[in-house]
Fold:
Amino acid sequence: MNRGLDPIKGAIFDCDGTLLDSLGAWRGLEDEVSRLAGVTVTPEEHKMFTTFTIPEVARYFHEQYGLASSMEAVMGIMDEYMMSYYERAHLMPGAEAILESCARNDVKMSMASSSKPQFLWAGARATGIADYFSAIVSVEEVGASKREPAVYDRAREAMGTERALTWGFEDALYAMDTLVRAGYPVFGLYDEAHGVPQSEVEKRARLAAPTLESVAVREGSLVVG
Structure:
């Protein structure tokens, strides 16, 4: 149980797997481009893809496996597949409640994601959460993946909050590492079934839980339980 020692003024939320229930769609996309390329990706490649942007995945499948006539053509295939998901997206358990809790307690919010801007806006509008955010920022817009802090910094600057009081909500270990190195407090989501162990998340995150359902803002602090 949190005891009010974790003050919060700003929150930067990851999108896929944190706010939107979209990881199945991304795994389906990997299966689809693998099928079109006539290959079976290795476990090492799958792990690598979790840190890639869409252009990086498209470039890999075109250059490594010769899929389509160009990287841009691969991106077109991927964009069409994913937009069909985001236009009918669903929220993760607890997502709406934590957004509303932040809003009631004057905690500013932004979204920072590796997904394309058009996907993020489509998903936010489909689920009715777009108005919660001061900004919705894609790595595409800052020209750097979540291996660098630029997307988080842009999201924080839009809110005008102090770094030490701006929490990053993430479900990927490499992104949590980036936040920690950049000086942001981290709320980490763990998922043993999909290779994000609780023990590894707790090494990085100040607070951690398997879902957002038990998370809220109370008296200016982020609490779990």
The longest helix spans residues 71-86. The radius of gyration is 17 Å. The beta strands are 10-13, 108-113, 135-138, 166-170, 186-189, 207-209, 215-218, 221-224.
